[in-house]
Amino acid sequence: MNHRQQKVPVFKKWYHWYMLVIGMLILLIVLFYLFTKHFE
Amino acid sequence: MSRFGSVDWIVLVLTLLLIISYGIYKSTTEKNLKGYFQGDRSMPWYVILLSIMGTQASAVTFLSGPGQAYTDGMRFLQYYFGLPIAMVILCITFVPVFHRLKIITAYEFLERRFDLRTRTFTSFLFQLSRGLSTGISIAAPSIILSSLLGWDITWTNMMMGGLLIIYTVSGGAKAVAHTQKAQMVIIFLGMFVAGWYVVHLLPESVGISEALHVSGKLGKLNVFTNGVTENGFDWKDRYNIWSGVIGGCFLALSYFGTDQSQVGRYLTSETTAESRIGLLMNGLVKVPMQFLILLIGALVFTFYQFNKPPVFFNEVEITKVENSRYKDSLVFLQNKFDEVSVRREAIVKEFANAVASGTDENAATESLVKVNAESEKIRQDVKRIIASDEVRGDNNDTNYIFLRFVVDYLPTGLVGLLIAVIILAAWGSIAAALNSLASCTIIDFHKRYAKNTLTPEREYRLSKLYTLFWGVFCVVIAQFAYNIGNSLIEAVNVLGSLFYGVMLGIFLVAFYLRKVGSKAVFYSAVIVETYIILSAIWPWLLKKMPALNEALPAAFNGFMNTAGSIGFLWLNLIGAVGVVVLAWLFSLFGKKESGKLEFKKIT
User: Fold this and answer.
1) pTM over 0.90
2) Is B106 exposed, middle or buried (0-12, 13-18, 19+ CB in 10 A)?
3) What is the ipTM metric for this complex?
4) How many angstroms away from the CA of A4 is the closest CA of chain B?
């Protein structure tokens, strides 16, 4: 089976998975910034 | 205070036996290379995820992570910020190509893209660096365990690097992946219990919020730092948001994209989708997981605010000082340290009460910071004595902090479980390394250069033999590496940096500079690798042959000293950029080479 024909789990496109991973990273960095500021 | 008792031994032995038995139970594969090195390509995404994490998380991760947070704060976490980005790049570029070619080793791809010698050269670099660094990876935690628990180093090495050979040889990649799955479950459980116990051991009036405030006020919750000082950006600052995102992405890309010990894990799935999901989930969970490991270290730091910590966490080095002429100085510093610790306990209680009641905490904060500075100054004095010419000890105790806490304060049974966690973490990464080393030896060398065609059964038997060979080789290296001491952990990183950059450079050219041919990339890689190795040993070479210094032009000496005089992490960048730029220049000015057609078909 061609890798382009394989069904993408959960989302419609792999692009959405990539955005999820990068979005999660950005969210974590923002949360870590707030965490650092709150406790310093 | 508990030490390693019989209950701990029972927990440890049972846990290790459970993993070995599970590994053997999961050993049934087809008796051919695909079965042995790719587990019949039958692994689902969650096994791949745990396998990738188990390969990356070595014993040192759990030893030095919490210690790092204790001494330097949680900013080390930023080192992992580039990893999710690297996972996305790998899923877009590397994974589909590797899957479509149905390769077992990453270096097979290089022959399809370039030629046999580029494949052989890169595979050789991998086997050399991974073989040596795995040996050192066995020795590093063994030294720490043997120092803390008084175990014999040879037996510790055997436990750390020898027992796992049983299931790694018998079951290949399938056994490695399934045991890593079980290991990660035990590791998560152990670390969760350890984290809970640290909070439980705090005074009754101190909750998690107060504990975090104590840690935060003393600069241990610095998860986000921008590397900017009064004098501008500090390029020597190792961990900040920029070095983490950019440098971390670079390192993760080379580790997950070109190191067979990782490539071999995500190629155990049948489809590209399973590999991608495994890698992407790693991108999602790795940073939070490291956060929790480091948080345990920050909480251990808070715990020692309420309890007297050792002035230095490695008892072996303290014993050395006690047997030197600095004995009296140590007693003096120790007494002073104890007195400061008692004062600190009163101040931190005052601070915690202020936080809990919401009253003004500024005065208590000031006193707390001051008393910690006093305590740190005494620790630095002790460290200076340890590093003195007479004692010649290792004055870095970061890797001893967490285990010392475990051994001194955790109840019997739990100590055994936490020691098992450390050993299982070592097993996960070592087993993957042995499996990948054997795959490269048989596929990139033996099978590729053999004059006679090997039957699948013979290839299978040889694969087992090569796994056994690498297992024994790494344990022997660990025995010799013992003499290097605790600087071993840094030695692993330095060793990797000598080769990783060039390996990544070759793969970057393969994927992104499609007009560059095999000769250009091969000679560039050889030149840059020679330069990096020579630079690393240049100061030693000049010391051995002082005549060289006078005979060679100053500019040349300066050029050779460049790589040796900067932080080793930069060697990765020099290697990769060096290969890419040189290969591109060779292709511009050299004889035109045609790229392989096969590569165009697969991408």
Assistant:
1) no
2) buried
3) 0.92
4) 9
